[in-house]
Amino acid sequence: MFESSPDLSVNTVAEIVRLALAPVFLLSGIGAFLNVLAARLSRIVDRSREVGSLVLTSRGQEHDRWIADLKVLDRRMSLISWATGLSVTSAILTCLVVVLLFAANLIRTRLGTEIAWLFIASMLTIGGGFAVFLIQTTIAARAVRIRSELLQHTVDEAD
Known about the structure:
The chain is an all-alpha fold. It has helices at 10-57, 60-106, 112-143, 148-151. The longest helix has 48 residues, at 10-57. The chain is elongated and about 85 Å long. It starts with 9 loop residues before the first helix and ends in an 8-residue tail after the last helix. The mean pLDDT is 87.
């Protein structure tokens, strides 16, 4: 079924490495995106801890506002988790593309269609991760509201 070839020429290996470079650069970009997601998640977690302690000491409208903020933070954490999962899935699929590029040459079989489908799936999942991240950032931007009493607050100057 498979024709094994332990004696690949240097030129053949060089060509495989050249073909694998684009997916490897893609992995680098996905890694950078995952770093952004982790930083956002960290900031959201820190903020939720801060708001959580404020909920316990607040009453009335202030309490309701902190609860609403916690709900938004919870939604944002969920979206970041989804974006992370989709991005990691894309990275795994991209790794499989690289592995199959080498394996197809080592065992001298045609895996072009499978490699193409894996790459398409990788692009769809990273695209999904970007889309979910966009939703999260939109929610974050909408959640930032400055109370009107703070905007109109003045300080009396003491003589």
